[in-house]
Amino acid sequence: MTPGLRKIGILGVTPLPIDSELIRALAAYGHVDGQTIDITYRWCEGDYERYPALLREMLELPVELIIAHATPAVRAAKAATSTVPIVMVEIGDPVAYGIVPSLMRPDGNVTGMSNGLHEYAPRG
Hints:
The chain is an alpha/beta fold. Helix content is 27%, strand content 24%.
């Protein structure tokens, strides 16, 4: 951790290609890990029961934003904090999983993108 920098936590099972894309996108906007921001990574390595402890570590740093990969990580992050913003990525249906009430108005501290496109499908 570098003192004085904005802190972002990335939480998931293992590193994914989206992490590299995120780092490149942040750099394109002038946010470089270790220079203008401080990114902390925590991986459960397939053991979802580790998420609460990993989140406690992040929140004690403290991180100002959590980027959570997949449903178990997002659920754990939502259970761990109602004040730190959570960006969900690589999640199927956050409405059906009870993470957000709707994609249009997610409410609370959780936002992001869903891979489940059911809300955009025609109804009939």
